[in-house]
Every structure is written in C-alpha cells, then in structure tokens.
Amino acid sequence: MPALLPPLRRGLVPLVAAVALLTTAGPAAADAFESCGSLITAPLERPRPADEACPSTDPVVCRIRVMPMDQKVEAQRTRMRYHGLLEDMHRTEADMRRAGATEEEIARELVDMRNQAKEITRAGMTREEVRVLEQRNTEKYGNPLGPTADQLYVKYGSWEKVTAASMRTSHAVDRELSLVYRPCPV
Prior knowledge:
Layout: H1 13-24, H2 27-34, E1 39-41, H3 59-65, H4 69-98, H5 103-122, H6 127-141, H7 149-156, H8 159-166, H9 171-176, E2 179-181
Antiparallel strand pairs: 1-2
Helix pairs in contact: 1-4, 4-5, 5-8, 7-8
C-alpha cells in the first residue's frame, strides 16, 4: 500500500492513521468514529433493477443504486472512511487559522488534502470503481482526482470559497449510501 500513497504532507499523517485504524480495527472503530456525531447511518436500500431508470445525473449514484447488497455495504464503509479523512481537514483548517496562515495557504492545503484523501480511499476500491470515479473527474476537471486549487479559485473567485468547496461532499452519493454527514465540532 505505501507505493500507492502520495508524498505525505504535514496534515496527512493523521489521515493515514485514521484509514489504518478504520480498515484494520473493523466495525468497532467505525462505531467509535460515528459516536463523535460525524455520520449518521440508516439501513441501505435494496439494489434497484439495472434496467430501472436512474433519477440522478451522477453516474456514481446510478452505479450505487444497482450494486449488490454486499458491494453497497462495502461502498458505505469506504465512504465512511472518506468522511473520516474529511474531518481531519476541518481540524487542519482550525489549526492553520490559529497559526495565522493566509486564506490561500489554507485553501491550497485543504484542496491537496482532499485529493490525497480521495487517493487513499480509492486504494481500497476495485479497479472498475476507481475507473468510474476517475473518468467522471477527468471529464469534468481534466484531473482524475478532481479540481486543483487554482481551478477552484477561477471558479469561485476567493480562497475562502475554495476552502469551503474543498470540504463539501456529494450529498447525492451520501444519500444513496444512507449516510447523513454532520461535521464534528472542532
């Protein structure tokens, strides 16, 4: 696995530790993570027939809808790990603000952390799952991991908005995996 990881940055060491904890410690660690209030889970919906029209324009959501239940459960666990990585971003933002970092420094660090969180999370996915995600991002942003800080700055016009965008998640994907995301207090 280390060969799959990008070079570690200051804020990413805790992210790797969180992934290691959640992937090796099993359900008890996931339950402990949930107890902080970040994610609320509900029972997963049964898979939909593959020929049923998908109401979403997001190919990831449509793919999740037809997954066999065992794959949906694993996708939900993977998404929970991803949210754990995003929580570290909230802590990093708070730490950087306390240390006096500029808005641009914070935004660039968080965009980088988010893209690294995607890469870490995808290490546990099948090649086909990763292919679908990377194809969507390449078509949309020209980058398999998603937009760069500079692309987001051009889109939003401020580093504060880039920071906020870097910590947003797809509510449609979360909903399809029966997850409700609520950030933990920092």
